[in-house]
């Protein structure tokens, strides 16, 4: 069930899983640190660490929808708020984070984004 926290839409496991499996237009981005991502992440979800997003914010397309994932939902919430402060309105937070993820995970360096243009090559 969708709710809101600090002006940010919160989505739960079922909603995120449904979005991922439906090939929806949302860009789901893991914002944890590199080491956390390599240990285990949602398959096909790219990594852009929170620590790098600040420097890249102007490269994101403002009219695209974004959902952010982290370990517990707190860092991803902060990233979503940062996007909103920078004029990117269509954002959401996966409120449970990887702690709540109940499906398959992958390990390794499968989808680490080094250039924002690579994000949009779906």
TrEMBL record:
What the entry lists under InterPro entries is as follows:
GlpE_sulfurtransferase, Rhodanese-like_dom, Rhodanese-like_dom_sf
Q: Which Gene3D superfamilies match?
A: Rhodanese-like domain (3.40.250.10)
Q: Where is the signal peptide?
A: none
Where does the Rhodanese domain start and stop, copy by copy? 22-110
Tell me, what's a Pfam family for it? Rhodanese
Lineage, top-rank taxon, reads: Bacteria
Q: Which PANTHER family does this entry report, sorted A to Z?
A: FAD-DEPENDENT OXIDOREDUCTASE, SULFURTRANSFERASE YTWF-RELATED
Question: What name has this protein been given in UniProt?
Answer: Rhodanese-like domain-containing protein
């Amino acid at each position: 069930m969708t709710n809101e926290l600090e002006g940010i839409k919160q989505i739960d496991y079922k909603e995120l899983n449904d979005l991922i499996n439906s090939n929806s237009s949302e860009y789901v981005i893991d914002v944890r640190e590199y080491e956390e991502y390599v240990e285990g992440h949602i398959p096909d979800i790219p990594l852009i660490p929170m620590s790098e997003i600040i420097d890249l914010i102007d490269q994101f397309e403002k009219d695209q929808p974004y959902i952010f994932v982290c370990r517990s939902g707190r860092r991803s919430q902060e990233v979503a708020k940062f996007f909103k402060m920078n004029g990117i309105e269509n954002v959401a937070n996966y409120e449970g984070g990887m702690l709540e993820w109940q499906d398959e995970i992958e390990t390794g360096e499968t989808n680490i984004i080094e250039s924002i243009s690579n994000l949009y090559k779906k």
